[in-house]
Structure prediction request, 328 residues.
Amino acid sequence: MRLMKGLRAVVTGGAGFIGSYLTEELLNRKCQVTVVDDFSAGSMENLACLTGNSSLKVVREDLKNPRKLDKIVKAHDLIFHLAANPEVRVGQTAPKVHFEENVLVTFNLLEAVRRSEMEKTFVFASTSTVYGEASEIPTPEDYGPLIPISTYGASKLASEALIASYVHTFGLRGLVLRLANVVGPRSNHGVIFDFIKKIIADPEELEILGDGMQEKSYLYITDLVRAVVHLTERCLEGSGKTAIYNVGSKDSVTVKEIARMVAEEMDVSKIRFRFTGGVDGGRGWKGDVKKMQLSIKKLLDSGWKPQYSSRRAVELTARELVRELRKS
Prediction:
């Protein structure tokens, strides 16, 4: 399918880790792309390989207080909403951040879509954390009730609800993607990045938050981008309902295993691990889901499958991030 060829796409957060990869793929598929980013986390460096592409436009815009959003949205067919504050731990000290940067921004974007009075397809990057502490592992899309244990998860679930209501009320197409932990080059937060930075600072001892037995699924960035494009094209063919898909890999790894992989990649395999013990039964922090594994049966049945396992995704990311960070 090449339904996206020639379409005009907005990518919010397009200068960030995931957004920059998606922007590159959309341009490869001959889309006209407008990146909307406030550059609080994103960087033009992430888009460096696309400099000079006449099909790319980059707009600096704070979506909490947008000024140009109506004009931008009206001129485009596809809205890929990736802009968010992804740091779960922020919720412990500044929950307002997740409300403003995740919920309010989503509302502002949906309002611009509504005011455009034109048919749009709205693709939203949600998260596995909307499930909270799921009792069913792997967790399918129809699991419930959804009870997030972090303000980050709550903000994403609130955004999902807003999107579903706007799709039903105002005739949009909606696609909600509940993502596992996405990893790869250009990522600048998360457990792999944190471990590398800590080992560079102290190659003899690595602090590990929690008991190290937190176990989660990891998805390599190129697998994610393939899934986004695949599901967007299915959405373009479908009805105006909200489609929800889990996007992840078929396995999971523990934090302790990730620490070992990063240590081996950095040639410090004899490093001491110091576990903090964490909170609430070994979590790294309040709101840290202890075990996450998404059921991706629905996505597999649609004709997509991941190229990389969680373990392989972590290994590749550790190798690439070590190379990047040692250069800097």
